[in-house]
């Protein structure tokens, strides 16, 4: 009987295979979840013909739950070959599986927007954290960070958002787009208050800033919840963002510089995590080995 060996970044597993093979592979170290693979192992059977496995044939995996197709090598052993009639319905299904598998192996042509997104995100977070720690006088804090916050981080994240949309990365586009909106709206808030664009009474400015921060803290928390299904690093970045914005909000509403400084530390923490994420993704783009990002938090919790 023919044997199939699953190769690549997966644990090897041998299974008997015939005209159409369904495999349940080991857990993917990239996707962090169960990977279900469909394999068409015999091109001779397509079109309703009766046939057997060739001596050596290589089939490609169409994966559900992971991006990287896994090569499967099927070889006929010393035992008798397996023959079977293929109905018209099965033949059409087999042809579809082969076509889908070939599409799954096509190299991505759109690139990866995540390295640039993480880099400009970390840049804006760095200057915000330093500013909140009092590196520049309080009266000019907003103006000193606007060139980077708006022109670099805000615009840069808009570019990466449109990039992610073009290649079909829904959640990546959601995160990048949300943070682009955050930084641009933050710039609009600070500059507008400084020039009295919105005609907000001085007594209402404190709560205006408070409601801005509360609303964005909720948005970041929503992103954090979804991030529990992706590598741990991204959950840590968003989690640190939630904690940092929470402390900054409390510090603003209570007019406490000390609490705002605690929030600033968390801002610098998620900036540092952003730089690490940039290195991990950028290194891969030039052929290097990826840095460990950790398994999804949900997969870690499910093991306990």
Explain this structure.
There is one protein chain. This protein is of the alpha+beta class and 304 residues long. The protein folds into 2 domains: 3-104, no CATH class; 114-302. The protein has helices at residues 88-104, 114-132, 141-166, 170-194, 202-227, 232-253, 257-285, 297-302, and strands spanning 3-6, 14-16, 20-24, 36-40, 56-64, 71-75. Strands 2-1-6-5-4-3 form a 6-stranded antiparallel β-sheet. α2 (114-132) packs parallel to α4 (170-194) and α3 (141-166) packs antiparallel against α4. The longest helix has 29 residues, at 257-285. The two termini are 40 Å apart.
Write the layout of secondary structure elements.
Elements: E1 3-6, E2 14-16, E3 20-24, E4 36-40, E5 56-64, E6 71-75, H1 88-104, H2 114-132, H3 141-166, H4 170-194, H5 202-227, H6 232-253, H7 257-285, H8 297-302
Antiparallel strand pairs: 1-2, 1-6, 3-4, 4-5, 5-6
Helix pairs in contact: 2-3, 2-4, 2-7, 3-4, 4-5, 5-6, 6-7
């Amino acid at each position: 009987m023919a044997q199939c060996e699953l190769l690549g970044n997966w644990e090897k597993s041998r299974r008997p295979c015939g005209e159409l093979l369904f495999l349940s592979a080991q857990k993917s170290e990239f996707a962090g979840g169960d990977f279900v693979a469909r394999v068409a192992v015999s091109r001779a059977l397509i079109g309703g013909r009766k046939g057997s496995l060739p001596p050596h044939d290589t089939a490609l995996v169409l994966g559900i739950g992971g991006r990287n197709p896994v090569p499967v090598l099927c070889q006929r052993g010393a035992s008798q070959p397996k023959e079977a009639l293929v109905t018209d319905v099965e033949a059409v299904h087999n042809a579809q599986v082969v076509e889908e598998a070939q599409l799954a192996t096509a190299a991505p042509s759109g690139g990866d927007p995540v390295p640039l997104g993480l880099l400009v995100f970390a840049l804006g977070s760095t200057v915000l954290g330093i500013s909140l720690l009092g590196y520049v006088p309080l009266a000019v804090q907003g103006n000193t960070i606007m060139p980077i916050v708006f022109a670099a981080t805000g615009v840069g994240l808009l570019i990466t958002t449109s990039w992610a949309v073009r290649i079909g990365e829904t959640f990546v586009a959601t995160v990048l787009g949300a943070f682009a909106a955050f930084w641009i709206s933050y710039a609009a808030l600070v500059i507008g208050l400084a020039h009295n664009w919105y005609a907000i009474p001085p007594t209402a400015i404190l709560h205006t800033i408070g409601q801005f921060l509360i609303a964005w803290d909720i948005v970041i928390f929503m992103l954090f919840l979804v991030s529990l299904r992706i590598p741990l690093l991204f959950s840590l970045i968003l989690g640190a963002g939630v904690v940092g914005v929470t402390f900054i909000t409390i510090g603003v509403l209570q007019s406490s510089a000390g609490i705002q400084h605690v929030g600033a530390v968390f801002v610098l923490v998620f900036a540092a995590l952003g730089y690490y994420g940039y290195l991990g993704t950028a290194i891969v783009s030039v052929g290097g080995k990826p840095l460990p990002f950790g398994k999804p938090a949900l997969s870690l919790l499910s093991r306990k």
